[in-house]
Amino acid sequence: MRTFYRLLQYEFSTWLKAIMLLCTAVIVIPLYLLHMFVKDYGEYTIHERYENIYASSGCIIVFLLCIAAACGFFLKTIYAGYWGSKSIYMFLSLPVRRESIYFSKIVVFVICLLMLLGSQLISIKLGYDVVSAKFASYGEGRFSMTNGLFLAVIRSDFFRIIMPLNLSRILSSASILFMITTALYYGALCERSKRYWGFVAIGAAVIVAIKILSYRMSESYSYAAPSHLYISSSIMLILSGFFIWHSIKLIKKAAIA
After folding, report:
1. Closest to 54 in 3D by CA, of 129, 116, 115, 166
2. What number is the average pLDDT over the span 124-139?
3. Under DSSP, is residue 30 helix (H, G, I), strand (E, B) or coil?
4. Which residues are CB-contacts of 63 (< 8 A; sequence separation ≥ 6)?
5. Model pTM?
6. Which end of the chain is more exposed for a tag (fewer CB within 10 A), N or C?
7. Backbone angles phi, psi at 67, to 5 degrees
8. pLDDT digits (tens, 9 = 90+) for 180-196
9. At 94, is the secondary structure helix, strand, or coil?
10. What is the Cα gyration radius of the chain?
11. Measured between alpha carbons, how far is 116 from 19 in angstroms, rounded to an integer?
């Protein structure tokens, strides 16, 4: 357990500067975008709902770009072991179980994604304060927002993906997050070990994830029952389990060296 903890420390040290920069970007950039979006609002302006302002100002794009950057940095940490001093050989020769090497990277990546999600929640709350303060600054407070953040979460499909409100949505969001972390690592291991057939399973997981995200991003306009969320979540978790099993098998066989 001590060696696993040391591996976690090492992996997180490689992430620290990058994840702090990304978390700061997720919080600060949307505040600037929201301020610029509503700065010309006045008493006679047609006031949009907060969730519409948040989407129209480009804040969602900032979050998605930061998630993509985190995924890219995760791949960089994997491939860095094959550059320069080729530290992958040092890791594979350590007197630790090969599973520890795998799970140290996965756990740190999950923690960093959760940090990004937490920063996004902070951004949503602070952004609401910026917009609410702007609305309350004119018309003698007649445009003050009441329960606007709560209603925005209820109405916004995007907000409900990162803040799911019931079990089926919680399981769906969690399975998507878990699938992203395991599929990225598995894809890199398949490429390193030349097991290219593994990308078929990754493609299947991506197709399921895209379909479920398409549904959840337009759920407000859909009349379909959400019962299939349990099925899609189960499929993604099963595929994630396969990614973990085969990734550990490849690492144990030193096929990635």
Report:
1. 129
2. 82
3. helix
4. 26, 30, 116, 120, 123
5. 0.87
6. N
7. -65, -45
8. 999 999 998 898 888 88
9. coil
10. 21
11. 8
